[in-house]
Write a structure and sequence with these properties.
Number of helices: 9
CATH topology: Glutaredoxin
Number of domains: 1
CATH superfamily: Glutaredoxin
Largest sheet: 5 strands, mixed
Structural class: alpha+beta
Length: about 190
């Protein structure tokens, strides 16, 4: 009897203790959000596999899954490296400018490789251009003191300090279920089509 009661309490409390993703403003969505399937890919600018998958697989996923309206695809940055953190902050600054966010994200993923040393200049240039083009400040990219007390950094830190936050990238979540598989077209086709 007590065991059933404890299991019931765990069941009731577990959704409250589940990982909280970053707010929508820190993410970028491709496809129609009202699609019947929701895919979240957890990525990092510092992940070579994330760049390779984006370059080699994502256009086919767009053509066969997103454009026909079978799913929407959200890229959720795991901001545990400086470039991913800066990109998350830039996406947040571009809130409400969804096409600009998609364009910036796609360019960063296409032009970078996951090697911090070679990517930092390219990624910073792309982010600065997007912010400047939209009349937004680039100060947070220059001055770490400026962002130390910034509530956006606190949101990122809150995500990163969650015990069950996704850290392995790339990781894919489909309709709320997290999979260990690489988010290739073949895998997505098997799960959704």
């Amino acid at each position: 009897m007590i065991r059933k009661l404890l299991l019931g309490l765990v069941f009731l409390v577990s959704p409250l203790a589940a990982m909280k993703p970053l707010p929508e403003s820190f993410t970028v969505v491709f496809g129609r959000e009202e699609s019947p399937n929701q895919v979240v890919e957890y990525v990092s600018v510092g992940c070579p596999s994330c760049h390779r998958l984006f370059k080699e697989e994502f256009s086919q996923i767009c053509q066969k899954v997103l454009i026909p309206g079978k799913a929407s695809w959200k890229f959720h940055l795991v901001p545990d490296d400086p470039l991913s953190c800066q990109l998350a902050l830039t996406l947040n600054a571009l809130e409400g400018k969804e096409q600009e966010k998609r364009n910036l994200f796609a360019e960063v993923m296409r032009q970078c490789t996951g090697d911090y040393i070679t990517d930092i200049g390219k990624a910073n240039h792309l982010m600065r251009d997007a912010l400047t083009r939209n009349g937004l400040s680039t100060q947070f990219m220059d001055d770490l003191e400026t962002i130390r007390g910034d509530e956006r950094i606190q949101i990122i830190l809150a995500y990163l300090t969650q015990e069950d936050a996704v850290r392995d990238v790339p990781t894919v979540e489909i309709n709320g279920e997290i999979f260990d598989d690489m988010p290739t077209y073949r895998f997505i086709k098997r799960k959704l089509l």
